[in-house]
Specification:
The protein is α+β, with helices and mostly antiparallel strands. The protein folds into 2 domains: 28-134 and 363-459, no CATH class; 137-362, Transposase Inhibitor Protein From Tn5, Chain A, domain 1 (Alpha-Beta Complex). It is built from 17 helices and 19 strands. It has helices at residues 34-44, 46-51, 67-80, 88-91, 95-101, 113-120, 136-149, 215-229, 246-254, 267-271, 274-287, 339-347, 351-362, 373-397, 408-416, 435-445, 448-452; strands spanning 8-14, 17-22, 28-29, 54-56, 132-134, 158-165, 168-169, 178-180, 185-188, 191-195, 198-203, 234-239, 258-263, 291-299, 310-319, 322-323, 326-330, 420-424, 429-433. Strands 6, 10, 11, 12, 13, 14, 15, 16 and 17 form a 9-stranded mixed sheet that branches. Helix 1 crosses helix 14 (373-397), helix 3 (67-80) packs across helix 5 (95-101) and helix 3 (67-80) packs across helix 14. The longest helix has 25 residues, at 373-397. The chain starts with 7 loop residues before the first strand and ends in an 8-residue tail after the last helix.
Length: 460
């Protein structure tokens, strides 16, 4: 029998006008703002260099989708809000993603979910079905390259490196899966090293270890690279009490790095701030407002797990009759940082890193559904580089605007998720957005956005 596909549908009239829906429009995309990310990537040259960290052993004469093209497709889709490989069964036909991924023939589809899955499942050794592999050390070095390049020719005088770990819940039988008592579920425990809003390292780890485990091994190549680039730079390491371990403290001292770590409270430390705590209690009674009194002293653990005594800063705080003591251990002297400023200005700023980790999760760093540990490490890298793309957009195109510190979800809604009609001619690719919508998007980005979008005809 002849199969007929209906192309028009009639709906209830709108007053005197009939309402008809059809499928005769031109090619459209919901990600018209992706041109911004495309231009950022062209300026920073992220994906081409990332592709250089992969080895492709496929027969070139049979390859339809290059490794670089698939990496572009994957990173741009993550930045645009598509977390699943299943999404690419439809995205592979999206005209904007074809343009961003660098597909020369705009009538040819991008890679599907199965092809992208083989990209992520490289085992590190050549096999019949997994012939694309990556080198972890090369990707780690690329993250450092991007960080160094962000300073241009101006060397920083001081860098503050933040260490933190987070839990990535697991719901299957992934390799390296362990139950973590603190978080109360099976998870991975990745380690992040960041400076400001930039990622220097994203290392996936099993959860059967202390948060600080192996941190000095990850720090060693990072610090060596930074000092090779800027021999005079001063480096301060900052982390919460989960990283306050003798091994890491000793490593910092041996490598002439300053540090400020949270220090878990205990009875001995609490007894040492009896007098400041009483002062805070009396001030609370007098003023009726929460009160802090700071003190400092030399301290060495009672069990002698510390190799020597170190400077400890204590915050004795009273909040509505409830005490809230906090302790820090640091190599910084009183002349460099007095107690209150050390806590309130230097250490408390560490909390900003937690927001940056949330940004990584908004870019689907928690999507650890691949069976192999190596495959999940690659997914963590993908989220980190998608984050670098968005950070590049904020640095190059949004500086000084209301979106300079926007979260990934806000950038998507305000700049990237713009409906557009895509028309392809012999000499041009036309991206047409709604007139008022496109103007609003550029105005919300400020005057820097049009400068970022100053394309030449050959760009498209």
């Amino acid at each position: 029998m002849t199969e007929c596909t209906q192309e028009r549908f009639g709906f209830a009239d709108h007053f005197s006008r009939s309402v008809v829906a059809g499928f005769e429009g031109e090619r459209t995309s919901s990600d018209g703002g992706g041109l911004l990310l495309r231009e950022v990537e062209r300026r920073l040259n992220i994906v081409s260099r990332l592709a250089g960290c992969f080895g492709d052993l496929r027969d070139a004469s049979r390859v339809e989708h290059s490794a670089e093209e698939m990496l572009r497709q994957r990173l741009f889709s993550l930045a645009s809000g598509y977390e699943d490989l299943n999404d690419h069964e439809d995205l592979r036909k999206d005209p904007m993603l074809r343009l961003m991924a660098g597909k020369k023939d705009q009538d040819q589809n991008l890679a599907g979910k199965s092809t992208l899955n083989r990209l992520e499942l490289g085992t590190g050794t050549a096999s019949r079905y997994k012939k694309i592999n990556f080198w972890r050390e090369a990707i780690d070095e690329l993250l450092l390259d991007l960080f160094v390049e962000s300073f241009g020719k101006q060397a920083p005088e001081e860098l503050v490196l933040d260490l933190d770990a987070t839990d990535l819940p697991l719901h299957g039988g992934q390799e390296g899966r362990f139950f973590h008592g603190y978080y109360g579920h099976y998870c991975y425990l990745p380690l992040y090293i960041m400076s400001g809003n930039q990622v220097l390292r994203a290392r996936l780890r099993p959860a059967n270890q202390d948060a600080s485990a192996g941190s000095w091994k990850e720090l060693t190549p990072v610090v060596a690279r930074l000092r090779a680039e800027w021999p005079e730079v001063r480096i301060v390491l900052r982390a919460d009490s989960g990283f306050c371990r003798e091994g890491l403290l000793l490593w910092c001292e041996q490598n002439k790095m300053d540090y400020v770590f949270g220090l878990a409270r205990n009875k001995a430390l609490r007894r040492m701030i009896d007098e400041p705590m009483e002062q805070a209690r009396q001030l609370l009674q007098t003023t009726g407002k929460p009160t802090r009194v700071f003190s400092e002293f030399e301290y060495r653990t009672v069990s002698k797990t510390w190799s020597r005594a170190r400077r400890v800063v204590a915050k004795a705080e009273q909040i509505d009759g409830k005490e809230n003591p906090r302790f820090l251990v640091t190599s910084l002297s009183t002349e460099q940082w007095e107690a209150r400023s050390l806590y309130e200005k230097l250490y408390c700023a560490r909390g900003e890193m937690e927001n940056r980790i949330k940004d990584q999760l908004a870019l689907f760093a928690g999507r650890m559904s691949t069976e192999s540990f190596r495959g999940n490490q690659l997914r963590l890298y993908f989220s980190a580089f998608a984050y670098c793309l968005l950070q590049g957009l904020k640095r190059l195109g949004l500086k000084g605007t209301e979106l300079e510190n926007a979260q990934p979800q806000t950038l998507r809604l305000r700049l990237l998720k713009i409906a557009a009609v895509v028309r392809v001619s012999v000499r041009r690719i036309w991206i047409n957005a709604a007139e008022k919508l496109s103007a609003t998007a550029c105005l919300s980005a400020g005057s820097s956005c049009p400068a970022l979008l100053s394309f030449r005809p050959t760009d498209l």
